[in-house]
Amino acid sequence: MGKRVAVVLAGCGVYDGSEIHESSAVLVHLSREGAQAEVYAPDIDQMHVVDHVKGQPTQEKRNVLVESARIARGNIKDLSKLDVKELDALIIPGGFGVAKNLSTWATQGKNCVISKVVEDVLKAFHAAKKPIGLCCISPVLAAKIFPGCELTVGHDTECEKWPYAKTAETMKELGCKHVNKHVTEIHVDVKNKLVTTSAFMCNAPIHDIYDGIGKMVKEVVRLA
């Protein structure tokens, strides 16, 4: 029996939910490592819905659990039902849904509030000394909850390759240690059992993002 890994999603689509390629990469790499993915999402409304052609918000309303079920091929559970005792590790892919639906980072930055069910799950895995994998923007959740932890969201100097580098500076203001890493690399906070990689925080070829997520998943499964 392989390790049982909770994968927490935040909707379906980069601008208002989970980043689909990152989520898929996590699931593929978990399968390759012989682990069993168990997908969860909170049963809440999205902050808003974004037209992914125009990049503009619409008047539509969508539910995070219902949208996330698209990525999970329907095999998904309400995050409030997660029991940390039955699981070996936790992974949260990126996408703006992390900053809009799982937290208010998109609008409030370091002063954000994290959804209570998401915060409770992160704290439960951390207290149980079970590994947590985070990629793209999702390390900000750990930055907010675990002061002094070590994380990467890529590089801390903004340029064409790293358009979201200011995130690293904001995380440092929360008292974290940010470690610069290339997109195909990971950082492991051994003390807190946090494994992070930058994914689409980097303007990189999709296969590099896929490979970086693969290293993150492999290390999470190893630590479990």
Low-confidence stretches: none
The secondary-structure element order is: EHEEEHEEHHHEHEHEEEH
Question: Tally of extended strands?
Answer: 11
CATH superfamily: Class I glutamine amidotransferase (GATase) domain
Number of helices: 8
Residues in helices, as a percent range:
25-40%
What is the end-to-end distance? Answer: 13 Å
At the fold tier of CATH, the topology name is Rossmann fold
SS class: alpha/beta
- How are the strands of the largest sheet arranged? 5-2-1-6-7-11-10
Largest sheet: 7 strands, mixed
Would you identify the CATH architecture? 3-Layer(aba) Sandwich
Rounded to an integer in angstroms, the radius of gyration calculated over CA atoms is 16 Å
Percent of residues in beta strands: 15-25%
Tell me what the structure shows.
The chain is an alpha/beta fold and 224 residues long. The protein has one domain: Rossmann fold, CATH 3.40.50. A hairpin with a 4-residue loop joins strand 10 and strand 11. The radius of gyration is 16 Å and the shape is globular. The chain starts with a strand and ends with a helix. InterPro entries: Class_I_gatase-like, ElbB. This is Glutamine amidotransferase-like class 1 domain-containing protein 3A, mitochondrial.
Concise synopsis of the structure shown:
This protein has a single domain, classed as Rossmann fold. 33% of the residues lie in helices and 17% in strands. The chain has helices spanning 20-32, 64-71, 96-100, 105-108, 116-127, 139-145, 166-173, 206-223; strands at 4-8, 36-41, 49-51, 56-58, 76-78, 89-92, 132-135, 150-151, 177-178, 187-189, 194-197.
